[in-house]
Amino acid sequence: QLQASGGGLVQPGGSLRLSCAASGSIRAINVMEWYRQAPGMQREWVASISSAGSTDYADSVKGRFTISGDNAKRMVYLQMSSLIPEDTAVYYCSANIMTWTTTWRDYWGQGTLVTVSS
Predict the structure, then answer these.
(1) 101-112 pLDDT, tens digit each
(2) How far apart are CA 111 and CA 59, in angstroms?
(3) Sheet harboring 75-80: ordered strands across?
């Protein structure tokens, strides 16, 4: 249902854009989010965007990351700038989706690795 892409190796101070595509028999999407999980750490919420376009960010990324969405394409993006080594993690996209056969539930993508290192 969700496919994340765009991860890779980037130097500190660099930028990277992650993408996540939702597919399947989707009737509606309520909110799409990005989470991340660093090695040995718990998964943490990064950013979210509602179907109306409202956005919210974790304090640790505010001012550096920008979440955006394309409702028609059922895509969500995470533009990451001024990256620091502490941003190194596997990034996951999540979405609250209603399909034509199920009620609202959360779906998760497979994760994409972002490594910030010189």
Answers:
(1) 889 999 999 999
(2) 22
(3) 2-5, 16-22, 75-80, 65-70
Measured CA to CA, the distance from residue 72 to residue 112 in angstroms comes to 23
For residue 65, the tally of other CB atoms under 10 A from its CB is: 22
DSSP for 63-86, please give it: TTEEEEEETTTTEEEEEE-S--GG
d(CA 21, CA 38): 22
| Strand-pair partners of 114 | 8, 89
CA atoms within 13 A on the CB side of 56: 9
- β-pair type (2-5, 105-108): unpaired
Distance CA 95, CA 16 (A): 21
Residue 1: per-residue pLDDT = 85
**Cβ(78)–Cβ(91) under 8 Å?**
yes
Supply 79's token pair: 């533009």
